[in-house]
Amino acid sequence: MSLQWTTVHAVLWTILYLFTKNVRASPCAEVNSSSTVVPLGSAVSASCYIKKECTLTQTSGYFIKWKRNAQFIHRSNASQKNVYDVYITNLTDMQNVLECFVCDYDTCNIVGAVEIRAGYPPSVPQNLTCLINLNESPTTLECTWLHGKKTSDIPTNYTLYTEFRDVSNKLQRFAFVPPPDENFFRVPRFGFTLFYEMQVYVVAMNALGQTTSKLLVMDPMITAKLDAPVIQGVGTQTFGCLEYKWSLSPTQKWIKKTLNIEIKFKPVNNKIFSEEKFNYRPDKKVKVCGLLHGMSYESQMRVRYQSSPWSEWSNTTVATTPMKAPTGRLVTWLKLQKPESRNPTAQLFWKPSLQFRPNSMNVSYTVSLIGEFTKKKETVCVTDQQHCSFQIHAKVKKVYLTTLNEAGKSHPTEVAVYRRRGLDPVSFFNVLPQSEESLMANWKSTDNSVISAYVLEWKALCGMKQNHVSFEIVDRNQTRMVASGLEPYMPYEISVYPKYGGGIGRPYSSVVYTKQKAPSTSPKLDTGQITPTFIELYWDEIPLEQRNGIITGYKIFYRDEKNNTGVKDTESTIRHVVLKDLYPFTVYEIFLMTSTNGGSVNGSIVKVKTASIDAFEIVLIVIPACVGLTLFFFGVFTCFIKQKWMKKYLWPVIPDPANSNIKKWATADSLECMQPFKEDKDPMIVYLSNISILSLPEKEMLKGDENIKINNWPYNGKSVDAGHNEPSHDSESFELEQQSESVPYATVVFAEPYRRQPVSPPVYLRSESTQPLLAEEEPSSPRQYEKITNQVNLADVHHFSSFNKNLSVKEENASLWVDFPMLRCLEMNSKS
């Protein structure tokens, strides 16, 4: 029973320990430690005192064990009766629980425990700042800081200290403890002083030590952000000056110290502010000078104490300085439209120079002309703009520009009139974007010696400033200029004019953008003619203000119902296109993409259906096709049926003199394509050529073949016999039929008088016949209509065919005359 109670008691004690870890004593034992908070890594000792009434020690053989963070450590010895010690040389854990156990041979029961924390001293507080709040009542000083890096779970306390000397020079020291885990504190009014230095610091403290922040020395007013001042009025009694009367807010009027004052001002039609700084007490007026006369200014003010933060800007006031007459000169630019005419139109532009002062908000300009023979001024223009157009006749020698306001007028500015025309422009001009608001223009001239200056002119082609022309007069030695104050995505026309001694050169112009992007919209597609195979598309030009750049081209995308796609490119100057090779009766989705150098934009999709092929179109297509095929097959059929007849016209039979004779040529086949003779009805008697018979002198007969020449052919339109003067009747009738169109086909040359001429193999000479030959003519063929010499070289004579030497004399003669029927009358017997 006693053992059971002891066990139950040990379990209850264990449960109690789990809920109360800081328990140091129990009914059975008492545990003590040398320190419950120690630096990390230091040594610590603990002791366990066993009480006499502890039932766990009633049995013999018990012993004591220690656990640290649920792990057993070495056994300790009893230092005295019932007291058991343990010593830990290096405590490396931040949380440590030492437990004392009473053990026997079977079980161990916890009888006591102690918790020991290990850590570091607190971190030094950082970034201590203080800011006074004058709007609170009473006024407070709010200080904030950072705790620094957390090194352990040991509780840390923070204390804010303020030290200052009061009016009696007595040191005052106050300590303020913020709530736990807070890093700021609002110091009440008694804890600080104004307009005098004070010290502020923070102390952090825990069980292991304390740290102090850096000392902050300050005047609380330096941290104060004052309220925005109030401008009570602005005086304008002095030319070019404005005088401001001002005060602090009602809750801060008690401040009488000197303050820093900043005033910013600008003309009402300008965007750039100018600033002036002063040091004044709140009861003093502030005077700003150096302003333009007669100009309305917007003004605002803000204040601060020494280096404190600036207050917010005050209310805006508008005041006008006293007015004076305009002073200074204007920069002018005069252009003549069609200067060759008698009374050209003049365009005059001007702008203020650096020395010009309008001295008023409202000014006007007067343009006057003075003629050649009169000193009276003629006013041609009165305007409040900075440009004017008027007619200028040839007798005008001087043009004057005058500025006027309510206080007076300026001295007139003389404008030079350049009348020479047709002068050369610059040789090179290039404009490139420099930024989103500026353009860089470069130019070059061939001869700068005759140029006095350049005029760079630019104007917007659309938008609010479309009619505004800006210009700059550039020295002749300068070849580049930056045009600024432009708007992106807007087109500008920029030009350069060379100024000569008596005239203005022709302009060199270019249209550019400072920056480009995709067009704002793409043109709407309109359809024209629609057929089964093509669609005609049109579109209008994009408005200039919506282009956002220079149009580089268009692309037309189209797709049919089967997702077959196509693309058609066009140039930027073309605004119509024809889509070809399309399918009939098909719906196409079409859209237009417009591109610039800055991007592209797609237009809306248009659905167009191609037309279908009707019966009339089918007839127009089928009938010509059928007629064409019929003619083709008819022609092919005719070629096969009339093959021989077609062959005679397309491939005529051309005799080959080398493999034929005259008799063979006169066959019926060769006569089919020849026209019939009018007088001779017998088709078998055909005279193919004329025969010339030459008889050489006796002196030449001995020379034989050496002296025969065939270069010259005597022919006068008749057949001539060298030995007989009697004309040949057959030859004359043949000549009438041929009408002097035939030429001698051959010449028979006799080396002896023909009566004594022995029968020899015939020698034929080739002639320049009008009938085409198959083979190429040889160089030795005789030429037409050349006289033959008395000496004929037989070696140069060419044979039409070889002569058969094995024939008898009669056979030879028979063969010769058969081949040459026209020479049959000249046949002679060798005996005679």
From TrEMBL:
The chain crosses the membrane at residues 618-641. Pfam families: fn3 (PF00041), Lep_receptor_Ig (PF06328). Residues 1-25 form the signal peptide. InterPro entries: FN3_dom, FN3_sf, Ig-like_dom_sf, Ig-like_fold, IgC2-like_lig-bd, Type1_Cytokine_Rcpt_Type2. PROSITE patterns: FN3. Residues 721-732 have a biased composition (Basic and acidic residues). Belongs to the type I cytokine receptor family. Type 2 subfamily. This is Fibronectin type-III domain-containing protein. It comes from Silurus meridionalis. The lineage of its organism: Eukaryota, Metazoa, Chordata, Craniata, Vertebrata.
